[in-house]
## 1
Amino acid sequence: MLIMFFASPPWRQARPTDNYFQWVQSNGVMALAKSWQKALPAAAGDLLGQMLSASPEQRPGIDECLAHSCFASLRSAPIAVRDESEAFPSAPRLAGDCYKEPEWVCRSVEELLEAQAEPPILGDPYREIADFSCDPYQTPAEELASLLSDAPPPLPLVREDRTDRRGLAGSTEAA
């Protein structure tokens, strides 16, 4: 869950020798969210902080996690009930059964070809966060600057120590 919120793993290995792990254990998940300038709801931060405790005895069980206020909106949402006939292709599909881009479904072939000829407008996911915020509980700039100065930078999603598998396969076959 934390990797989905942060789009990055919080540490390399969950070991006391990992600097990232030490920092998160001593400062907390919410401090990491602030330092990486990621939006993390307070309820989710509280639950994730409990779930990522270094001591397994202190971590909540699945029932405690599901009872947490983080999932309150899901508990009150109606549950969709489907019968088995909807699993067949001839049955009408519910929203979410099949992913199709709506703009492509409703366009003619000419419109589709025109849209594909236009260059895509790509946003920069790593752009700076705007200074303006409507959040009355926003951290003062000085505190945020101190968090940014000692917080570890976000980790890449791909491991840095990957080796070329083709080279490894060739060396094992030669032996």
## 2
Amino acid sequence: MKLTLAAVAAVLICLFSLIARSYAMRAWVEPVLQQRAYAEQERLALAAIDGHLRAKLPRLTKR
């Protein structure tokens, strides 16, 4: 009985350790992914603005 209880406790400790590690890794990676997503959105916005300004450039130079 004591051996079974010790085995169950060891398994629960291992599971708790794995859960804590996965949460820690997710918390560490999430800001990096958000930063990449923000950089991608910024690049797309700048490309759209650049394309819009290039399209208007001939009209602006004719004035």
## 3
Amino acid sequence: MKKNTIRTAALTISFGVLCSALTSCGSSNEAPATDGNYRPKTDSYSNYSPEAENYDVYEAPAAADECYGGYYEEYPVQPSPDEEYDSPAEGGFKDPKAEPLSTFSADVDTASYSNVRRLIEDGSFVPEDAVRAEEFINYFDYDYPDPEEGKFSQYVEIGDCPWNASHKLMMVGLQGKRLDQKEVPPSNLVFLIDSSGSMGTYDKLPLVQNAFSMLAENLTKDDRISIVTYAGSSSTLIKGASGKDKDDILEALYSITASGSTNGEGGINTAYELAEKYFIEGGNNRIILATDGDLNVGASSTEELTELIESKRDKGIYLSVLGFGTGNYKDARMEALADNGNGNYSYIDSVDEAHRVLVEEMSGTLYTIAKDVKIQVEFNPSQIASYRLIGYDNRLMAAEDFYDETKDAGEVGAGHSVTALYEVELVSDGGTYHGIDLEFADQHAQPLEYKTDKENERKELCKLSLTYKDTDTNEDIYDSQLFGMEKYSNTPSDRLKLAGAAAEFAMILKDSEYKGSSDYSYVTKTANQLADTSEKAAELAELSKTASSLFS
């Protein structure tokens, strides 16, 4: 099978290394030069531009698909047993009479989608625990309206559920305020780079260097940059340099080589010390950690590292985590670090993804506009028979935590949006019960399971509430709205179509017990319908098609 993969310049360079091992496939024995470690093709770092490097579409030659180590490989293949994922239980349907409130922490992470994309493009089975539906949904841009005032606008839409004809699909969206360039505060950034031996492959350190070089090109003279590497011990290459010193920053980046063990604890401590030393009052103070998560010296367990990060998050310094690589990838550990470090988590599988996260969405990735963002939906039991939040399985909160200012929750960056989908079952007129026709329907004077005063029955479906801490004032903000079937249409918007397709794709890959009639062909068809206006939708269609050929 020939894989339709989007590959990067990193892959192009590394393919020479791969080919040298594939002698039985007629590949060259000549290895590429490695002294530059992916150094830009220019004598002047200040003139370096990632776009100028022509990082377009790279499709691996057929030989790479057909042979590995001298034999023809069959797809799909098993992923490495050394990759680690968390495994929270999948949320099921709730009865609003017993549990009227659904409360969860906002999530803008997208790592699960891009990591699963890597697995599919590599012809690998997808571990069910690698799939987090909310990160599939939130990978896509739904072009919500900007807030007219405050930090967020709210969006609600209800349509028919594609995989369960008797249910509805409810879309809840928040759009964060976008910042004009003149509104963007100066940044104090620490690039914390894992330079241990496990980072030596083409899809790790070389891609890290490329990613950070893109970000460096967009820095200003008011920004401050430090670079810390860690292997057996930590090393500081740059301390508080001005963003205008691009030559020095790029020179330091491309001088890094991979070797040794992995003392993440030492690197984290050094990074926070530098972030505190060059702290910008009112600015964006952030550590950006780039790693495969395979730590083996000092504090190395998820629990130990989480405790270390938690002890530092109240210093006004955010932590963003960029995951790289395959084989020994520790997804659960990196998600926990970002969640507990008041940051976000992305997986970088290509130069294109690095550009998306660190250039196209730089303001959202780097500039936090709201902390401890919590969402709560109250369901009206006279209108909703049952509901299920799709995803967010490790971000659920107790109802009372919504108003508890001490409870940590997610952060949202400038221009970022948060989307959640609920599958809901409306209360019937008594003729059915959970979609099953009733023989004695006419004996039910009112809907089964509960009694209500019809004269005082409220027709709203839900109350949507939002709370967050404003980063400008540190004030706790609360907002809410009521909505009902006026939000319903039997002709869904492109927003709901795309979100539904992303959720359906995730449920198929996860083999969710709630996937209903979901199938790859519907995902592919729906995404293709939106491909003319969304490159990401076009990619989803291609990815679904590839997954179907691999796993069906």
